[in-house]
Every structure is written in structure tokens, then in C-alpha cells.
Amino acid sequence: MSIDREELKRMIDRIPEQDAIEVYDFIGYLNMKRERAVLEQLDDASLAEDADLIRQIGQSREDREHGRIYGKEAGLDYLRNKVKDFEHEQNV
Predict the structure, then answer these.
(1) C-beta of residue 27 within 8 angstroms of C-beta of residue 21
(2) How far apart are CA 36 and CA 20, in angstroms?
(3) Which superkingdom heads the taxonomic lineage of this protein's source (predicted)?
């Protein structure tokens, strides 16, 4: 079945905000479902050979060991400060 993406976008533009939120949530669900299916197809052997994944895991472990992991509030504060710094630079 072929979908005209432009028509789909027009349909979304015409729906009420509450319905748009539900559509957004549903699209997120579909993406998550697709990603889960892909992950289930990966086997342990292929993951064990992925040099980039191994590097990322090592970096994550190192970050945790050195306290470079932000909790929810600390992460939000960090992002707020980065946005504030960026906005300040733009006003210069």
C-alpha cells in the first residue's frame, strides 16, 4: 500500500491539537516497535564484534566511574545553562 506523505501531512495539519498529540504518541510507538524488532534480530556475536558499540560501552563505564553522568534534574540544568550561554552569545 502506497501512502501519499503530503496528504498525510495535510491530514495531520487539519486535526485538533489533542488528536495530534495522540498521533505523535502513536508514531513514537511505531518507531519504538520497529527498533525493538531490529534489536531482537541482532545476535550476541554480532554485537560482540561491533567495535563502535564496544567503545561506547567503555566510554559509558568510564563516565559513570568518574561521575560524569547527570541525573534528570542535573541534566536539565546543564541543558538550560547551555541554551542560556548560546542565547547570550547570539545577543552579543
Answers:
(1) no
(2) 24
(3) Bacteria
In the numeric block, the cell 545476535 is attached to 43
Q: pLDDT tens, 18-47?
A: 898 999 999 999 999 998 888 877 777 677
What is the average pLDDT score of the chain?
Answer: 86
C-alpha span between 48 and 57 (Å, rounded): 11
- The answer to whether the CB of 12 falls within 8 A of the CB of 20 is yes
Beta carbons within 8 Å of 15's beta carbon, 6+ residues apart? 23
Sign of the dihedral through C-alpha 27, 30, 34, 35: positive
With cell 541534566, the residue in question is: 75
Q: What is the C-alpha separation between 54 and 46, in angstroms, rounded?
A: 11
- The percent of residues in the chain predicted with pLDDT above 70, rounded, is 98
